[in-house]
Queue: 2 jobs
Job 1
Amino acid sequence: MRVLHGVWAGDALMVWGEAPPGEVRTAGRGEHPFALDTGALRSLLGSLGAGRAPSAEAGEVVLTLPGDGGAPAHSLRADHCPARLDPWRVPALRLDAPRADALLAALAAPAEGEVRIGPALAHLRAVHGFAERLVDAGCVLPDLVGDPPRARWRPAPVDEAADHLSALTDALPAAARAHLPGTGAQEWARTCVLAPAELLTDAVARRRTRPGSGEGDGPAHRLAAALTGTGSRVDEGTAAALREPLRRWRSRVRGAGRARLSLVLREPEGGTPWAVEFWVDSTADPGLRLPLEQVWLGEGAAWLPADVGTTALADLRRAARHYPALRRALSDLAPARLLLDTAGAEAFVARAAPALSAAGFPVVLPQWAGGDGLSLRMTVEEAPARRRGGVSASDLVHVSFQALVRGVEGGPLSEEELDELAELARLKRSLVRVRGRWMEIDPGRVESALEALRRHGRRRAGVGEAVRTAIGVAGTAPLPVTDVVAQGAVGALLEGGSGAELRPMGTPPGFEGALRPYQDRGASWLRFLGELGLGAVLADDMGLGKTVQLLALLADERSASPSPGPTLLVCPVSLVGNWVREAERFTPGLRVHVQHGPDRPTGNALARLVGGCDLVVTTYGVVVRDREQMAALPWHRVVCDEAQALKNSTTRQARAVRSLPAAARIALTGTPVENNLGELWSVMDFANPGMLGSAEGFQRSIAHRAESGDEAATGLVRRLTRPFVLRRVKTDRSVIADLPEKLEMRAWCTLTPEQASLYKAVADHTAERMAEADEKERKGLVLAAMARLKQICNHPAQFLGDGSALAGRSGKLDRLEAILASAAAEGDKALCFTQYTSFGERLAPYLRSRLGVPVLWLHGGTPRAEREELTRRFQEAPGPVVFLLSLKAAGTGLNLTAANHVVHVDRWWNPAVEDQATDRAFRIGQRRDVQVRKLVCVGTVEERVDEMIERKRALADGAVADGEQWLAGLSVADLREVVRLAPEAVAG
């Protein structure tokens, strides 16, 4: 991976480049050892399509860079903490402003190949983008600079430009001023922001303007030729004639800080036509405004400059470039307004107003502009046969719609009004008058919507569909729903009940202990939705007490009704004991039964037992095996703990749990989305069947767009699920203020020569086989290669499986030892997670012998009793202890707050799984800051996948596509990048 850098020096861009860290060139004293020579740099610029840049003059620049004295720190190794700053000489190419314009324009699109843009050059790319936007908006003015005089395009002195330049100055990275040691912030801003902004604005404007016609020989003609041709020099006579007019021009644009033109659209009144009125506004105080008509009548104000009329006419002429109809008004001696018919007003609202606003002219439109004026009133009537006890998403209701005009009283539109509106829509009219008020509509949308209203009339629908329609899911209603009329429990939900104030629960009778404020709110929310017969997804972070909130709910409802019916709790087998202990501790009066083990009751015995219980705890495996028996019992509520177990809706486990009938359902999970939004659909469909439609429809209409970065689709997902999903995170101080900090970091490791040799052999062999494989075979090859490369990154002995010695053969193992030894020396306890049980079996005795402290080992085969004993020993041990754990077996259900160090030995592709494991230590009860280290071998598949995961974290707390399967869908170029061995992976 090569890195392209650049700094602005004087009147030119100095470009230099870095080779990968492993490609160290022979360098003299003070020469940068990683810098590309000018030949390689020319080739690189040529490959980027930078026009004339490769022919630039060769030079050298001295940069003050971080390092350790012996060598500068490579920019790709930003994890290092350099101890000092030293000057280094780097070969560079000097690009004047036109060449710099060509290069930065080429870099506006993502660079092809293995090239990364350094922070200083990325900042200059932003300065160049600012220059392009100025030219596009016409915010540039001609000027004369220097001696001898030269013509130059310069940014216009407007507030927006000054604000943008200030923001660019604030964002200036240290690398952009590395050639200016010892100077202050003012010099940095002038050299690194103001100078390139001005010179690049001139270069962009010249590139986008046509050369002069060649006719005429006056000063203005000579200035135009100098502004558009290859030469910028002007003679002294031209300069003398134009300096003062150009100065006055810039002063007027600055408005002497006082006035500017704005345009106001007025509706017809009393038979008058539409009108665009011209006003002048104070730039210093937006509240000072005056119609231009009064200026012509001499009714000015003290804040107006003397030349306001001249300035207003100049602004009108500039505005006419973006809205040619204004030329009609310019023919008047004292233009005050432009009269329009309805078609002209429609064109002004739809096209001219956005163009004028983009060019910097304030435009004031009526309040109704910018959105459809029509909406719907939705009426929902409960079916008489609806069952007692709340609302089910599958219950049927009667739904009907009526059209409303936003902001207009008088109720829904009548049939006659609908007919008139439909006729206007057929004529493609976008501005229409209804009940004496103008409004804007989309003709095509309104015409089809009105036809749909008449066609559908009153119909039956499920409560789930009604909810989706009421909250605005795309495609469920022909127009936006702005009013809902409903009664009873359905009305409480649809008319805003999901956002109603919750009744505080306090400390329910029979509950031993006190709920934290956020736990009280969570339990109250569960009770509220339960009273409506709706399911809930309690998605609090691990360690915030989801168990306590559910137990408080059970205690509260049993204080109101002695026998509401049994609650079935389904959880992983590792959590059965935890639920029993927590129930005994917080709700000792609950009648609890554990339905697990070979001797568990069945048939009538189970039915009689369940009838006398408040809480039945079972496992996902038991539900699958005893599906018919469990589904035949009268459950009041079904609760799924660690509900991410349902994320794949097609598994036997998910289908079995979903088949259990209940009046209400609750999903408990710290990770409602681990990989993609299909998992959220699956969890939601357990809690509220049908609420999000079918899996295919949800994926097609919403999830696919959200996962592709569509912010509107992401917002729609939040809107759809907000009433039913409650998520709080431990880092939110408004939720919980007494938790310490969680400090996450990557611990970079290098491969030993043995590891590097094995890695390269596997990568090369995989690349050869992929070149010959078809699509189906390629996916299998990639997944197999990923597993082998990850094992090599851990240790050669794990990959070889030969039982050979561990010491001295793995850079990662050396780094792990150092981290754990440091923690033990401080008397601290540490958790170490690995996804490989076979590696953990060898690692535990090795660390025991090397560290001289107890090293405990827990994996999927550890019996439940031994698991609990290991947990107790770790929590109660007086000195340092290392707890080595299998990631999948120990990622949930353990409270290990005695640890304040967490180490992830090998990376898991899904960050949510790592976060769950980390939360064994970072949870309520932790009193010290928790340090979390993720061991990553630099330059290997671990680093590449880490980068890919970071790019995907924006989707629902770090979701990536379908676990490890998304790796198989990479392009050939991506695969080559993932499996290649970077030179920096090898340590000395």
Note: The first helix runs from residue 38 to 47.
Job 2
Amino acid sequence: MSKPRLVMVGNGMAGVRTLEELLKIAPNLYDVTVFGAEPHPNYNRILLSPVLAGEMTIRDIILNDHDWYEGNGIRLHLGNAVTRIDRVQRRVIATDGTEAPYDRLLLATGSNPFILPIPGNDLPGVISYRDIKDTDEMIETAKRYRHAVVIGGGLLGLEAANGLRLRGMDVTVVHVAPWLLERQLDETAGKMLQKSLEDRGLKFLLQKQTEMLIAGESGRVAAVRFKDGMQIAADLVVMAVGIRPNTALAEAAGIYCNRGIVVNDTMQTYDPKVYAVGECVAHRGTVYGLVAPLFEQGKVAANHLANFGIGRYAGSVTSTKLKVTGIDLFSAGNFTGGSDTEEIVLNDAAGGVYKKLVIKDNKLVGGVLYGDTADGPWYFQLLRDGQDIHEIRDHLLFGQAHVGDVGHQGHSKAAAMADGAEVCGCNGVSKGTIVKAIKEHGLFTLDGIRKYTKASSSCGSCTGLCEQILSATIGGAYTPAASNKKPVCACTDHSHQEVRDTIREHRLVRIADIMHFMEWKTPDGCDKCRPALNYYLISTWPKEAKDDPRSRLINERAHANIQKDGTYSVVPRMWGGLTTPDELRRIADVAEKYQVPTIKVTGGQRIDLLGIKKKDLIDVWRDLDMPSGHAYGKSIRTVKTCVGLEHCRFGTQLAMSMGVKLEKMLFDMYAPHKVKLAVSGCPRNCAEAGIKDVGVIGVDSGYEIYVGGNGGIKTEVAQFFAKVKNDEEVMEYTGAFLQLYREEGFYLERTCHYLARVGLDYAKSKVVEDEENRKALHGRLLDALKDAKDPWKERIAGVERQEYEPLSV
């Protein structure tokens, strides 16, 4: 007998999760067909923001690739929306005329972004923020235009604004409410968030109502006008003002809808052959937009599609754990309080931490956390279970580890959690479920937890907690989460680690040799794998492998940063941030001679000349007569210093002298990613050494070295590495650590991510605790850099001259 036919309309996270659950409990029950309106397989919509910000690619956020559908026998129609449901003949008809009969139909049509009904909302340059297409359009727009206006101060709007800012646009967020994220935060937390985002360069106009969008001469949007008469420039307008359930297809088929597609507790619509899940659904009058409830719905729908008939969806108690541009937020329940509630509040504005817990009848009924959300899951468990908290009330605000016998100092959050405590809110996974999976399946990695429990596979905010549970459960057998097995790119199935190992074991010295030996799928590689292979070669065999200019990105080929208007930025090196009157005169003369439009002091204590034409670069370098600042490459950037003992009355060590020594030692050092250092002459840390790849802080008895800091989109505080006595030891320990990173780091992996992968203790064992290995690492670094050449001087001498010559017509 032929299998019953299941057709799913919609290929998003809720629908595909339903299929995953169905395949788990009834793998061969249905002949499955899926229609998706987008041209992409199922992807993690939550992670569109990192794609916009440039931290991830579309490939990185694909949840189920084409092979998954094929391997499970699923017939997939992409870029082909269903336009009609024929409930009499039980079939669906798609845009291109494709018809698919069904015995069961699953509607997962999601939601549509709400567009303000104002004049000009259909102008070119006015978009929503909902899918990959919107994301791509924003990325392309940022390359050509300057002014962006994001209408909506919710989570999506703030992520869009931050991504556009990182892409170089001047961004203003317009919000109708008095504070940001008013549905997730109270006023205090909302204002703290606004201040943090303003410090990062975003602008805000609150309590503003948009009246119309105004077109420019080209017909594209040019300005936003508000009802109070104010008007601001806008080359791009992103509307992030909410979503509406996509019910049009269901309504046209006569399926009952009221706000959403109405379903019962089995996720069945009024037509018993038709089920629905996700943002298109209205269950008991409620429409959910968070992933956790949608995944709960998918599990119930799968249970009934499998004919088990025992699952029931009774609605969801939701919490919100968010990461807005690197700032942690959490809220749950009735966090606004009322006349019949009490509040316990901690407000440390200077430290960036705010906690408010709302209590009623000795039970936690709501809360807001800003800046420190580690105890969010525990608070949510107390709230959801309705536990009596009167015995732990005095310590409640300080978290789970400080409450009675629940935990004690020295134990991790994971060890203190009860087995029933929820770890992953998106997928409803408890600690007990994770521990059981670890023991039953012998799991050693985060990927294993994701595979067997789905925890950490959606928004990723519980990743750290899952890793703690792994560590607490299996101790030393725990393997930290890593990208060890992830292919370098689509050209190969081999991982970065496999490539590095192969180059070393087989002494490969050319890119072509690697591709031939490792059977590259694409004969000549691509713009992702070629730069990675080139770096691995020159870092593994610095005296034998030849740098391949064709495998360098444009900035590294031109030795200057290309800007969005096609001109270049030139940053001459100033050793340790020090300069002279003569150098400053030369910089001023060059700026006048070549009509440099913008001169800026950088965060690394240097001067940036912006707006230089490519054909003038070599002449500019000749006239400057200063070393290259390497501000364009995956290389040593700067060693920032304070004035130290040389001038400061608080100084304990010679910071400027130490900074110059380090920077000269590391000149022309290429690495997996950019590397920044800082030297502070005393613990007051004026050089911001605590957020650098290597930070050196002078103390009375010598120096303290910190590693793995990052001041980027997600600030990572550097970790203590070693205490040393003198300048020579600073250079040896620093050089050894950076050489370890150069030899083992994956291309485009910052030091903080390298340490997250291998562990700080591992790096210490190789550098701090093993003197012989430390000296060997330092020696290999010095050997690799002893013949360092200034690329600007080489170009002045005629190397790669064709790179700078305009094409003849």
Note: The first helix runs from residue 13 to 25.
